[in-house]
Structures are given as structure tokens and as C-alpha cells.
Amino acid sequence: MPVTASVYLAYHASGQLLYVGLSLGPLARFSQHSREAEWWLLVHRIEIERYDTRQEARTRELHLIRTERPPFNKQDNPRRPPTRRIGRTPGLSPTLDLLAAAVRKRDQAKEKLADTVHAARQFGCTWKEIGTALGVTYQAAWERYGPKVEE
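Given the sequence above, the corresponding C-alpha cells read:
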């Protein structure tokens, strides 16, 4: 009988189980998690268990959620634990890991925005056009980006 369902276990680098899921197409599900689940940034390793029937996979998924209580499983985990401290660095929790990841993303976005403003100036866009695109006045755009870009 062909495999019809998979249970996947997503682990933090510390080894803590973060999330358990069931999918008929795990790769597509991972892609969805990468777009929609902020906790996905914490995943270091994934294990996939294959089952002949969806019911077998569902039974295994429920067992893992109820016994392991992964912090990011909301469904079927009514006694979900408060956020536990995980990670190699003492004192970091999943929330702080996510916060650190968000700060990195913000910093990368700021850098990309500054590079894009610089490129717009190189292509001859005015500060008024740039300000409009940014949703600010031309003066605010120049004050924020002008000195660095124009130097």
C-alpha cells in the first residue's frame, strides 16, 4: 500500500520539539509554514514519519501533541505550556528568538530601502517622487536618506 500521509516533527537547534504536523504533501506544507508561521524561523531540523493511512498519521500526530506539548501547536493542545525557555543561549525563549529574527529582518529591510532610494536617485527620481513613494514629504525623505545617499 502506498504512503498517503506524513507526520512531521519540527525541532529547535536545542533539540526541543517546536511543532508537530500532518500532511499529505509535506514539502508544500513547509513552504506554507515558511510564509505564514513566524516560529518557522526557529526550526533547525525536521523529521518526517510516513504512514500508510491518514488515520494512522492522525493518531500519531495527536499522540505526539498530547504527550510532548509542542509550544507552537495550538490545535489539539489545550494544555499548551507557557512559552518555555529553549535555545543554546541561557535565557532565550522562542518569543525572544522570534524578536531577534524580526530585528534582523527589519535591519535588512532598512538597508534594502536605503539602497533602493539610492538607486532611485541614480535613475533621476526627485525627492518629491521618492517621498510620495515612501508616503512622506520630500523633506522627510531627504532628511532620512539624503545625507547618506548624496555623500
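The first strand starts at residue 5 and ends at 11. Try to locate this feature in the C-alpha cell string yourself.
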